[in-house]
Amino acid sequence: MQNHTTAAFNVLNAGALSLLQDLGRYGHANLGLTSGGAADKQAFAWANRLVNNPDNACCIEITLGGLELACLNDSCIAITGAEQNVSLNQQPIKTWQSYRIKRGDILKFGFAQHGCRAYLAIHGGFAAPLVLGSRSTVCREAIGGLTQGQSLQTSQTLAVNRPSASVMPLQAVPQEAIPSYKRHLVIRLVLGYQYQAFSQAAIKQFFAQTYHVSQQADRMGYRLTGEPIKHDIENLYSEGISFGAVQIPLDGQPIVLGPDRQTIGGYPKIGSVLSIDMDKIMQATTGCTIQFCSVSLDNAQHLIQLAQQRFKQTQLIQL
After folding, report:
1. What is the DSSP letter of 183?
2. Which of 147, 171, 195 finishes a domain?
3. Which residues of the chain have pLDDT under 70?
4. Which residues touch 227 (CB under 8 Å, ≥6 apart)?
């Protein structure tokens, strides 16, 4: 246990995939290390705000559900993101708000109904070793989390970074600010310089059709299925890849790259998804449909700034 930490939970059931995540590990792509970090940064941000945490406090990202925890000390928690039928001491509780919990309480996540990733924040943030400035877990790179990039394991003990405050205000996100995780998504994309290597027919086809999320969808990337985008682009030099980049590999089926993406790649990229729309994609499940639309770089920056302003200006409801 680290200094200045307090035991928070014992893991009774680790669920399908439960990961410690903060905002990510940046500035180390030259070492081949990806950014990682919360897949849905909007839900992550709301969870931390509900318990008065710093923006980068470590949360648990629960993919598909199944996590069960026994509380070891009194604290304050918040749950956001996908609807996973959460219960506290076998009583259903709402998400997108905070709760006081007591020693001996049992917190249980069912399985995702809408969306796929939920976020659990605790006042003070979960404790884990800092690796290159981040606590984020990247399983593929065996880095971060509690033990060398592993997901949470049954019987582990989770700690909080400082003793919980005796009194914390209970708060909720206003209904109008809570995202709805839809089965059909319209996703905004900024065209990249390589789009000029695609034919006009291929670009028109890309924006006109509706794609389906395949079973090959995880934190590394979301492979989509649809009518293949044909191209004969070869001999590209491998280059750095951004979060949200849309690669078109040889089979013509787009891949939207996520937080655990590889750091370089040689497939042509038609563009990059807006960061605020990546939150939607990372909540999508197999069979969800996606249609892309193009926006200019200036418009994209404006839309992101507006979203950031709305987040800051939205007042939490005091319970």
Report:
1. S
2. 171
3. 1-3, 163-166
4. 205, 209, 252
**Cα(219)–Cα(231) distance, integer angstroms:** 26
* Coil, strand or helix at 4: coil
State whether 15 and 164 are in the same domain.
yes
CATH of the domain at 230: 2.40.100.10
Query: Do the domain assignments include residue 210?
Result: yes
Handedness of CA 112, 101, 139, 150 (dihedral sign): negative
| Angle at the Cα of 281 from the Cα atoms of 110 and 95, rounded to 5 degrees | 35
Shared-domain flag, residues 298 and 212: yes
pLDDT value of position 197: 85
Q: What is the dihedral of CA 289, 294, 296, 297, to 10 degrees?
A: 40
In a domain, 177, yes or no: no
Vertex 96: Cα angle to 113 and 168 (nearest 5) = 145
266 assigned to some structural domain: yes
Residues 166 and 188 in one domain: no
Alpha carbons 145 and 117: distance in angstroms, whole number: 17
> Tell me: the pLDDT tens digits for 106-137?
999 999 989 999 999 999 999 999 999 999 99
Number of domains within the chain: 2
One domain, residues 88 and 237: no
Dihedrals phi, psi of 299, to nearest 5 degrees: -65, -40
Provide the total of helices (H) and of strands (E) in the chain, helices listed first.
4, 22
Distance CA 272, CA 301 (A): 13
Residues 128/22, Cβ–Cβ less than 8 Å: no
* Calculated CA dihedral for residues 107, 113, 116, 122, nearest 10 degrees: -20
Under DSSP, the state recorded for 100 is E
Residue 156: phi and psi, rounded to 5, are -70, 155
Structural domain boundaries enclosing 212: 184-313
> Which pLDDT does position 232 carry in this prediction?
76
